[in-house]
Design a protein that fits this description.
- The protein has 192 residues and is α+β, with helices and mostly antiparallel strands.
- It is 24% helix and 30% strand.
- The strands form four sheets. Strands 3-6-9-10-11-12 form a six-stranded mixed beta sheet, with helices on both faces.
Length: 192
């Protein structure tokens, strides 16, 4: 008796992994399936304090919201999507739903990633994908290399070289995000 087998698409495999690995973040970047483990305590605190800083700066009054773990549908390949740690989005972002709880990149003003064990994704494919998607500001708290990178103003699908910030410094949030704010490098890296 012959058994018919169905080869999974990348999107179907991502859905299966998402269900099989609760708490993990499953993404498709440049046609490659990636899985990120749940965040550690410092990672989670960095994001909490980032949200508080944007609250104090008046992000809601500026017509924006901050969200954690909301997907961006990427224009790189057919099934590509990313789920940034933290994003600043237009207040009506929910009107831009594409699919799989991912939203059109045009409603994102800033995305931020705090690196984990798969830090190379945040420093490689995500830089390329976010630039191609036209995300105006991308901040990476690079815990592997103990610095914060600020990418901004992509042109022709590429970001210029990042601005690099070390401990003891602050990262100025670009005006295009909608608020005036300086973010502590130490807080972004450690959650302290």
């Amino acid at each position: 008796m012959a058994v018919l087998q169905h080869e999974l698409t990348l999107s179907e495999a991502a859905d299966l992994l998402s269900r099989a690995l609760p708490g993990h973040r499953v993404e498709i970047l440049q046609g490659r399936l990636t899985v990120t483990p749940p965040p550690d305590g410092s990672h989670a605190l960095s994001l909490t304090k980032l949200g508080r800083a944007f609250d104090r700066a008046g992000i809601v009054e500026a017509g924006r919201e901050y969200v954690q773990g909301v997907g961006i549908w990427l224009p790189t390949l057919r099934d590509d999507y990313a789920i940034p740690d933290f994003s600043i989005v237009d207040e009506d972002f929910r009107d831009a739903l594409v699919q799989k709880n991912c939203y059109s990149p045009n409603v994102f003003r800033l995305v931020a990633e705090v690196t984990s064990s798969n830090w190379s994704d945040d420093l490689g494919p995500k830089v390329e994908c976010y630039a191609e998607a036209g995300i105006p500001v991308y901040i990476v708290a690079d815990r592997k290399h103990d610095e914060v990178l600020l990418y901004r103003d992509p042109a022709d699908g590429k970001y210029p070289a990042p601005e690099r910030y070390k401990r003891g410094q602050s990262v100025p949030v670009p005006e295009s995000v909608g608020v005036a704010l300086d973010l502590s490098v130490d807080t972004l890296l450690d959650g302290d």
